[in-house]
Amino acid sequence: VTLAEDDGTLELAILDADDWASGQKTIPGESQEDLVLRWTVLDAQTDSGTLTIETNGGTATIPISTVDLDPEVQFITTPAGEVEGQTTTVEFTTVSAGQVGRVVQVVQAIGAVPLSVQSICFLDGDGDCQTSQASANGGFTLCDGSPDTFEGCEPAEAEDKLRTQETYTFSVFFHPATDVVDTLVAQVLIQTDAGREPAATLLVRGTPCVRSEATPV
Asked: CB-based contacts of 174: which residues, under 8 Å, 6+ apart?
């Protein structure tokens, strides 16, 4: 028994292949043996091949093909924020000017096919990706992982081939300057190759907290 796959990425296999390939497999009359194939999903491409079974009664050639699978994604935001469609809005209301707040975003692969995070970026006024790690208004910074501070952090980057339940994490810091009193807003686009709803937007809005009375905190 042999299995030949049509492409160079080996994802199809015969369980107990050595037993079936040894030429010593005997199946008594009026009985049967189950031959089991395994499919290890490594990419989003369908797989095909040919299973050949040679017996003393003749040779059987059986075409093999798999279903078409798409990557699936889940977005987890802390704090949770308000979700509407594919947009999650997080409000910073307790961060004073000169202080720092943080939201942590997790992108998780939940399907059988590996997921790629293609881009993470601030959007400009035209809805295009900025290349800067900082928002245009200077009040927010994108960081890889979940560091304690945005100062000197690595930029959030694309992540390739997240397998089932694997995650990629990035953070958005709100750090209004000491002279800022107005509300600052920024949008972060998360683009993946998921088959359904591949993109999500994280909208962050921060208004520096100002003490209304000169009383002890």
From this structure: 92, 95, 100, 101, 102, 103, 139, 140, 184, 204, 206
> 113: which 2 tokens?
């096919």
Give how far Cα 108 sits from Cα of 77, 167, 205, Å: 11, 4, 24
Q: What is the dihedral of CA 63, 68, 71, 74, to 10 degrees?
A: -120
**Which tokens is 40 given?**
């290890």
Task: Report the alpha-carbon angle 127-174-165, nearest 5.
Answer: 75
Kindly report, residue by residue over 24-72, the tens digit of the pLDDT: 778 888 888 888 999 888 777 788 999 998 888 889 999 999 888 889 9
Residues near 217 by Cβ (< 8 Å), separated by ≥ 6? 211
Q: What is the pLDDT of residue 178?
A: 87
**Which segments within the chain are labelled E, that is strand?**
2-5, 12-14, 37-39, 48-55, 58-65, 73-78, 82-84, 87-92, 101-109, 115-122, 140-144, 159-162, 167-174, 184-192, 199-206
C-alpha distance from residue 129 to each of 91, 189, 191 (Å): 22, 8, 11
Separation of CA 193 from chain center: 8
Which structure tokens are listed for 59?
Answer: 């040779």
Query: How deeply is 140 buried, as exposed, middle or buried, from its count of CB atoms within 10 A (0-12, 13-18, 19+)?
Result: buried
| Chain centroid, CA 154 distance in Å | 19
